[in-house]
Protein backbone atom coordinates (compact mmCIF):
# COMPACT_ATOMS: atom_id res chain seq x y z
CA UNK A 1 0.00 0.00 0.00
CA UNK A 2 1.35 3.43 -0.93
CA UNK A 3 1.26 5.83 2.04
CA UNK A 4 1.57 9.61 2.13
CA UNK A 5 3.40 10.93 5.18
CA UNK A 6 3.13 14.57 6.30
CA UNK A 7 5.34 16.29 8.87
CA UNK A 8 3.20 18.56 11.08
CA UNK A 9 3.00 21.48 11.72
CA UNK A 10 2.31 23.22 9.41
CA UNK A 11 -0.99 21.51 8.72
CA UNK A 12 -2.25 20.65 5.24
CA UNK A 13 -4.94 23.17 4.31
CA UNK A 14 -8.09 23.11 2.23
CA UNK A 15 -8.26 24.95 -1.12
CA UNK A 16 -11.49 23.99 -2.88
CA UNK A 17 -13.85 21.09 -3.53
CA UNK A 18 -16.76 20.10 -5.72
CA UNK A 19 -19.26 17.37 -6.53
CA UNK A 20 -19.68 15.89 -10.01
CA UNK A 21 -22.33 13.66 -11.60
CA UNK A 22 -21.21 12.22 -14.94
CA UNK A 23 -22.88 9.92 -17.46
CA UNK A 24 -20.89 6.96 -18.84
CA UNK A 25 -17.97 7.94 -21.05
CA UNK A 26 -16.36 10.58 -18.81
CA UNK A 27 -12.54 10.69 -18.91
CA UNK A 28 -10.60 12.19 -16.02
CA UNK A 29 -8.65 15.34 -16.84
CA UNK A 30 -5.00 15.06 -17.91
CA UNK A 31 -2.74 17.16 -15.66
CA UNK A 32 0.92 17.26 -14.68
CA UNK A 33 2.63 18.79 -11.61
CA UNK A 34 -0.35 20.90 -10.56
CA UNK A 35 1.17 21.76 -7.18
CA UNK A 36 -1.90 20.59 -5.24
CA UNK A 37 -3.04 17.30 -3.76
CA UNK A 38 -6.26 16.13 -5.42
CA UNK A 39 -8.51 13.90 -3.29
CA UNK A 40 -11.10 11.89 -5.24
CA UNK A 41 -13.90 10.05 -3.41
CA UNK A 42 -16.49 8.00 -5.31
CA UNK A 43 -20.11 7.67 -4.15
CA UNK A 44 -21.40 5.76 -7.17
CA UNK A 45 -19.79 4.37 -10.30
CA UNK A 46 -16.06 4.45 -10.95
CA UNK A 47 -13.07 6.64 -11.72
CA UNK A 48 -10.37 5.12 -13.94
CA UNK A 49 -7.21 7.10 -13.26
CA UNK A 50 -3.51 6.59 -13.88
CA UNK A 51 -0.78 8.38 -11.93
CA UNK A 52 2.78 7.83 -13.06
CA UNK A 53 3.09 4.13 -13.85
CA UNK A 54 0.17 2.91 -11.71
CA UNK A 55 -3.51 2.70 -12.68
CA UNK A 56 -6.41 2.85 -10.23
CA UNK A 57 -10.06 1.83 -10.42
CA UNK A 58 -11.69 3.93 -7.72
CA UNK A 59 -15.07 2.44 -6.89
CA UNK A 60 -17.94 3.33 -4.52
CA UNK A 61 -16.75 4.04 -1.00
CA UNK A 62 -13.14 4.41 -2.09
CA UNK A 63 -10.78 7.38 -2.19
CA UNK A 64 -7.59 8.24 -4.05
CA UNK A 65 -5.17 11.11 -3.37
CA UNK A 66 -3.31 12.29 -6.46
CA UNK A 67 0.10 13.81 -5.81
CA UNK A 68 1.00 17.44 -6.61
CA UNK A 69 4.28 16.47 -8.28
CA UNK A 70 3.10 13.74 -10.64
CA UNK A 71 1.37 13.26 -13.97
CA UNK A 72 -2.17 11.87 -13.77
CA UNK A 73 -4.81 11.27 -16.44
CA UNK A 74 -7.91 9.25 -17.22
CA UNK A 75 -6.99 5.65 -18.00
CA UNK A 76 -10.20 5.05 -19.97
CA UNK A 77 -13.76 6.37 -20.23
CA UNK A 78 -16.04 5.42 -17.34
CA UNK A 79 -18.44 2.57 -18.06
CA UNK A 80 -21.32 3.78 -15.89
CA UNK A 81 -22.84 6.81 -14.28
CA UNK A 82 -20.37 8.21 -11.75
CA UNK A 83 -21.00 10.52 -8.81
CA UNK A 84 -17.90 11.67 -6.97
CA UNK A 85 -16.28 14.45 -4.93
CA UNK A 86 -12.98 16.10 -5.65
CA UNK A 87 -11.02 18.18 -3.15
CA UNK A 88 -7.81 20.16 -3.59
CA UNK A 89 -5.51 20.73 -0.66
CA UNK A 90 -1.95 21.88 -0.10
CA UNK A 91 0.83 21.15 2.36
CA UNK A 92 3.67 23.65 2.66
CA UNK A 93 5.66 21.42 5.01
CA UNK A 94 7.65 18.26 4.43
CA UNK A 95 5.87 15.24 2.94
CA UNK A 96 6.85 12.02 1.24
CA UNK A 97 5.38 8.88 -0.31
CA UNK A 98 6.44 5.52 1.08
CA UNK A 99 5.46 1.87 0.98
CA UNK A 100 5.91 1.29 4.72
CA UNK A 101 4.89 2.71 8.05
CA UNK A 102 7.55 5.13 9.23
CA UNK A 103 8.49 6.14 12.80
CA UNK A 104 6.23 8.79 14.27
CA UNK A 105 8.99 11.28 15.08
CA UNK A 106 11.55 10.82 12.31
CA UNK A 107 11.56 11.80 8.70
CA UNK A 108 12.77 9.30 6.06
CA UNK A 109 16.32 10.70 6.20
CA UNK A 110 16.61 9.45 9.77
CA UNK A 111 16.51 12.87 11.40
CA UNK A 112 14.46 13.49 14.52
CA UNK A 113 11.50 15.60 13.46
CA UNK A 114 11.35 18.67 15.67
CA UNK A 115 15.07 18.95 16.42
CA UNK A 116 16.90 20.65 13.56
CA UNK A 117 14.48 20.00 10.73
CA UNK A 118 11.38 22.05 10.02
CA UNK A 119 9.18 21.43 6.99
CA UNK A 120 11.94 19.34 5.46
CA UNK A 121 14.46 22.19 5.57
CA UNK A 122 17.40 22.62 7.92
CA UNK A 123 17.29 25.90 9.81
CA UNK A 124 20.31 28.14 10.32
CA UNK A 125 19.11 29.03 13.80
CA UNK A 126 16.82 26.21 14.87
CA UNK A 127 16.80 27.20 18.52
CA UNK A 128 15.55 30.74 17.92
CA UNK A 129 13.03 29.74 15.27
CA UNK A 130 11.76 26.45 16.57
CA UNK A 131 12.53 25.58 20.18
CA UNK A 132 11.40 28.65 22.05
CA UNK A 133 8.08 27.13 23.12
CA UNK A 134 6.70 25.62 19.92
CA UNK A 135 5.25 22.13 19.79
CA UNK A 136 7.61 19.50 18.40
CA UNK A 137 6.93 18.24 14.91
CA UNK A 138 5.30 14.88 14.41
CA UNK A 139 4.21 12.90 11.38
CA UNK A 140 0.87 11.66 10.08
CA UNK A 141 0.37 8.97 7.47
CA UNK A 142 -2.65 8.20 5.36
CA UNK A 143 -3.26 5.78 2.51
CA UNK A 144 -3.04 7.18 -0.98
CA UNK A 145 -5.70 4.73 -2.22
CA UNK A 146 -8.09 2.94 0.13
CA UNK A 147 -11.58 1.90 1.10
CA UNK A 148 -13.21 4.50 3.32
CA UNK A 149 -13.72 3.14 6.83
CA UNK A 150 -16.67 5.50 7.47
CA UNK A 151 -17.88 6.49 4.00
CA UNK A 152 -21.11 8.10 5.26
CA UNK A 153 -19.16 10.49 7.50
CA UNK A 154 -16.58 11.18 4.79
CA UNK A 155 -19.23 12.11 2.23
CA UNK A 156 -21.01 14.22 4.85
CA UNK A 157 -17.81 16.21 5.44
CA UNK A 158 -17.18 16.57 1.71
CA UNK A 159 -20.76 17.74 1.21
CA UNK A 160 -20.44 20.39 3.93
CA UNK A 161 -17.14 21.66 2.56
CA UNK A 162 -18.46 21.85 -0.98
CA UNK A 163 -21.66 23.60 0.09
CA UNK A 164 -19.66 26.22 1.98
CA UNK A 165 -17.39 26.76 -1.02
CA UNK A 166 -20.36 27.18 -3.37
CA UNK A 167 -22.08 29.68 -1.07
CA UNK A 168 -19.16 32.09 -1.25
CA UNK A 169 -19.15 32.68 2.50
CA UNK A 170 -16.11 34.34 4.07
CA UNK A 171 -14.74 35.05 7.53
CA UNK A 172 -15.80 32.46 10.06
CA UNK A 173 -16.89 30.11 7.28
CA UNK A 174 -13.31 29.90 6.00
CA UNK A 175 -12.11 28.90 9.45
CA UNK A 176 -14.88 26.32 9.66
CA UNK A 177 -13.79 24.88 6.32
CA UNK A 178 -10.29 24.26 7.63
CA UNK A 179 -11.66 22.59 10.77
CA UNK A 180 -13.87 20.27 8.71
CA UNK A 181 -10.95 19.49 6.42
CA UNK A 182 -8.73 18.49 9.36
CA UNK A 183 -11.46 16.11 10.51
CA UNK A 184 -11.58 14.67 7.01
CA UNK A 185 -7.82 14.01 7.05
CA UNK A 186 -8.15 12.50 10.51
CA UNK A 187 -10.76 10.12 9.12
CA UNK A 188 -8.34 8.97 6.42
CA UNK A 189 -5.47 8.56 8.88
CA UNK A 190 -7.61 6.81 11.49
CA UNK A 191 -8.78 4.38 8.86
CA UNK A 192 -5.17 3.42 8.21
CA UNK A 193 -4.58 2.92 11.93
CA UNK A 194 -7.72 0.79 12.22
CA UNK A 195 -6.57 -1.52 9.44
CA UNK A 196 -2.90 -1.76 10.34
CA UNK A 197 -2.70 -1.61 14.13
CA UNK A 198 -0.20 -4.28 15.03
CA UNK A 199 1.01 -5.88 18.26
CA UNK A 200 4.25 -3.97 17.73
CA UNK A 201 2.46 -0.61 17.59
CA UNK A 202 0.37 -1.46 20.64
CA UNK A 203 3.45 -2.45 22.64
CA UNK A 204 5.32 0.72 21.64
CA UNK A 205 2.34 2.91 22.58
CA UNK A 206 2.05 1.27 26.00
CA UNK A 207 5.78 1.63 26.61
CA UNK A 208 5.76 5.30 25.65
CA UNK A 209 2.81 5.95 27.97
CA UNK A 210 4.61 4.15 30.79
CA UNK A 211 7.75 6.25 30.29
CA UNK A 212 5.77 9.51 30.24
CA UNK A 213 3.91 8.53 33.39
CA UNK A 214 7.01 7.51 35.35
CA UNK A 215 9.66 9.84 33.88
CA UNK A 216 10.43 11.39 37.29
CA UNK A 217 11.35 7.97 38.67
CA UNK A 218 14.43 5.78 38.30
CA UNK A 219 13.03 3.53 35.56
CA UNK A 220 14.59 0.15 34.85
CA UNK A 221 14.02 -2.08 31.84
CA UNK A 222 13.00 -4.86 34.18
CA UNK A 223 10.37 -2.78 35.97
CA UNK A 224 8.84 -1.63 32.70
CA UNK A 225 8.92 -5.16 31.33
CA UNK A 226 7.10 -6.53 34.38
CA UNK A 227 4.53 -3.71 34.32
CA UNK A 228 3.72 -4.12 30.62
CA UNK A 229 4.12 -7.89 30.54
CA UNK A 230 6.46 -7.71 27.53
CA UNK A 231 10.10 -8.75 27.35
CA UNK A 232 12.45 -5.76 27.48
CA UNK A 233 14.12 -6.76 24.19
CA UNK A 234 10.72 -6.87 22.46
CA UNK A 235 9.78 -3.48 23.92
CA UNK A 236 13.01 -1.95 22.64
CA UNK A 237 12.49 -3.44 19.18
CA UNK A 238 8.89 -2.17 19.00
CA UNK A 239 9.83 1.35 20.09
CA UNK A 240 12.65 1.48 17.57
CA UNK A 241 10.25 0.46 14.83
CA UNK A 242 7.37 2.77 15.78
CA UNK A 243 9.17 5.80 17.27
CA UNK A 244 12.60 5.52 15.70
CA UNK A 245 14.42 5.42 19.04
CA UNK A 246 15.15 3.19 22.02
CA UNK A 247 13.16 3.43 25.28
CA UNK A 248 16.18 5.09 26.90
CA UNK A 249 16.39 7.79 24.22
CA UNK A 250 12.63 8.37 24.29
CA UNK A 251 12.77 8.84 28.06
CA UNK A 252 15.77 11.15 27.83
CA UNK A 253 14.15 13.39 25.25
CA UNK A 254 10.90 13.52 27.21
CA UNK A 255 12.77 14.49 30.39
CA UNK A 256 14.58 17.25 28.52
CA UNK A 257 11.31 18.57 27.09
CA UNK A 258 9.83 18.69 30.61
CA UNK A 259 12.92 20.44 31.92
CA UNK A 260 12.54 23.18 29.29
CA UNK A 261 9.09 23.96 30.61
CA UNK A 262 10.44 24.30 34.15
CA UNK A 263 13.35 26.46 32.98
CA UNK A 264 10.93 28.92 31.38
CA UNK A 265 8.07 28.80 33.89
CA UNK A 266 9.94 28.73 37.20
CA UNK A 267 12.99 30.20 38.83
CA UNK A 268 14.07 26.84 40.27
CA UNK A 269 17.82 26.23 40.24
CA UNK A 270 19.09 23.89 37.57
CA UNK A 271 19.99 21.26 40.15
CA UNK A 272 16.38 21.11 41.37
CA UNK A 273 14.99 20.92 37.85
CA UNK A 274 17.36 18.06 37.09
CA UNK A 275 15.97 16.10 40.03
CA UNK A 276 12.37 17.02 39.25
CA UNK A 277 12.57 15.50 35.77
CA UNK A 278 14.34 12.31 36.78
CA UNK A 279 18.07 13.00 36.55
CA UNK A 280 20.15 11.80 39.50
CA UNK A 281 23.02 14.20 38.80
CA UNK A 282 22.79 17.83 37.73
CA UNK A 283 26.04 17.56 35.77
CA UNK A 284 24.70 14.66 33.69
CA UNK A 285 21.47 16.58 33.09
CA UNK A 286 23.43 19.62 31.87
CA UNK A 287 25.53 17.43 29.60
CA UNK A 288 22.47 15.74 28.03
CA UNK A 289 20.65 19.05 27.68
CA UNK A 290 23.60 20.62 25.86
CA UNK A 291 23.95 17.60 23.59
CA UNK A 292 20.36 17.78 22.34
CA UNK A 293 19.68 21.52 22.56
CA UNK A 294 23.07 22.95 21.66
CA UNK A 295 23.33 25.13 24.76
CA UNK A 296 23.36 24.73 28.53
CA UNK A 297 20.19 24.83 30.67
CA UNK A 298 21.22 28.24 32.08
CA UNK A 299 21.87 29.64 28.60
CA UNK A 300 18.52 28.29 27.43
CA UNK A 301 16.77 30.06 30.30
CA UNK A 302 18.63 33.32 29.66
CA UNK A 303 17.91 33.25 25.95
CA UNK A 304 14.20 32.45 26.06
CA UNK A 305 12.67 33.23 29.44
CA UNK A 306 12.47 37.00 28.88
CA UNK A 307 12.44 37.16 25.08
Summarize the structure.
This protein is about 40% helix and about 25% strand.
Describe the overall structure:
It is a single chain. With 307 residues, the chain is of the alpha+beta class. The chain has 2 domains: 3-194, Jelly Rolls (Sandwich); 199-304, Arc Repressor Mutant, subunit A (Orthogonal Bundle). It is 42% helix and 23% strand. It has 10 helices and 14 strands. It has helices at residues 126-130, 151-167, 172-196, 199-213, 221-228, 232-243, 247-265, 270-276, 282-293, 297-304, and strands at 3-8, 13-22, 31-32, 37-44, 47-51, 54-58, 62-66, 71-74, 82-90, 95-98, 117-118, 121-122, 138-143, 145-147. A hairpin with a 2-residue loop joins strand 11 and strand 12. Helix 4 runs parallel beside helix 7. The longest helix has 25 residues, at 172-196.
Amino acid sequence: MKLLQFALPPLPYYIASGHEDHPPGMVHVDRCNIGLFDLLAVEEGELLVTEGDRSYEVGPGQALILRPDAHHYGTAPTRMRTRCYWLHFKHDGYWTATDERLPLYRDPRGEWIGRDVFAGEELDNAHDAEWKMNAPLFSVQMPQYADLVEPARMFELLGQLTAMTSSGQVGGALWRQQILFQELLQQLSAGLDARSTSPSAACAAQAAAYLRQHYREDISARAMSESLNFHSVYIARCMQKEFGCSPKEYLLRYRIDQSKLLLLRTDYPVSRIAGDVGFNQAAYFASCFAKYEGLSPRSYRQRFSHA
